[in-house]
Amino acid sequence: MISFNYETDFELENESQYEDWVSEIIESEDKTEGEINYIFCDDEYLLQKNIEFLNHDTLTDIISFDYTMGNLISGDIFISVERVKDNAKDFNVAFEDELRRVMAHGILHYCGYKDKSEEDSALMRDKENEKMNLFNQ
Q1: Which positions are annotated as binding Zn(2+) (predicted)?
Q2: Who has greater pLDDT, 40 or 57?
């Protein structure tokens, strides 16, 4: 089950399309969909989560809490809409594209992909692009 929660004035348009897409990402990785909660918030909200749970006093676009067990993909994905908007400007991409990249990124972590090394980051970016292309099909 995929749910979308809002701690800011932002709301996804066409939630069902996003829900189907996230399900397709999970299925494309031969995983099973568990409970996925997306929480859209602002920088301040996510900064407090970053300090409270990770002891990091920095802004970020995403924090994910992974509850995956085996192939059953579950977790809470917090996304700062403000940070995504700023990153979209910085990378000169559409907000919707950057948002989908971040949404896919969280799911890919649950599927076992990492991004700490250069090699892992390159694979993660390839997977993000692959999964973003599923959105428009």
Answers
A1: 105, 109, 115
A2: 40
